[in-house]
């Protein structure tokens, strides 16, 4: 997966890895205003669980991809194609990623509002 993505994204540590690796999206954010959060939210529109964001803290705009050892080659190839599509979207239509996810039940929440005014209980609907 790392080898398929390193032509598109900057790999933070270009070393042999067992299964996890870290991408730095610092250049993508600087040149196209697309953050690691935007790419992670874009993953949701393709049915992929977003990777770990902003960790490790020493890598700017970090995305840590760590597929499990049970993933098939086909699913890893599919994930690579999705990350490549997200990269191309970042270059050609960054606003689409700023609004992602758009195909999910819940779209992108206002994270500042959620942090400042958390709703800590769930109101169940009466059947």
Write a concise keyword list for the protein shown above.
single chain, 127 residues, alpha+beta, Aspartate Aminotransferase, domain 1, four-stranded antiparallel beta sheet, 4 strands, 41% helix
What is the CATH class designation? Answer: Alpha Beta
Shape: globular
- Secondary structural class: alpha+beta
| Order of H and E elements | HEEHHEEHHH
CATH topology: Aspartate Aminotransferase, domain 1
Describe, in short, the structure shown.
This protein is α+β, with helices and mostly antiparallel strands and 127 residues long.
Q: Would you mind describing this structure in some detail?
A:
By secondary structure, the chain is α+β, with helices and mostly antiparallel strands. It has one domain (2-116): Alpha-Beta Complex (Aspartate Aminotransferase, domain 1). The protein is 41% helix and 9% strand. The protein has helices at residues 2-5, 26-32, 36-45, 73-92, 94-98, 111-116, and strands at residues 10-11, 21-24, 52-53, 62-65.
Strand and helix map with partners:
Layout (H helix, E strand, L loop, with lengths): L1 H4 L4 E2 L9 E4 L1 H7 L3 H10 L6 E2 L8 E4 L7 H20 L1 H5 L12 H6 L11
Antiparallel strand pairs: 1-2, 2-4, 3-4
């Amino acid at each position: 997966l790392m080898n398929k993505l390193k032509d598109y994204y900057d790999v933070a540590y270009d070393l042999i890895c067992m299964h996890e690796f870290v991408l730095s999206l610092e250049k993508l954010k600087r040149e196209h205003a697309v953050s690691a959060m935007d790419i992670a939210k874009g993953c949701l529109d393709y049915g992929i669980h977003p990777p770990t964001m902003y960790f490790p803290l020493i890598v700017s705009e970090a995305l840590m991809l760590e597929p499990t050892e049970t993933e098939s080659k086909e699913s890893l190839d599919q994930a690579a194609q999705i990350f490549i599509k997200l990269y191309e979207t970042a270059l050609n239509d960054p606003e689409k990623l700023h609004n992602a996810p758009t195909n999910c039940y819940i779209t992108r929440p206002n994270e500042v509002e959620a942090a400042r005014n958390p709703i800590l209980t769930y109101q169940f609907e009466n059947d």
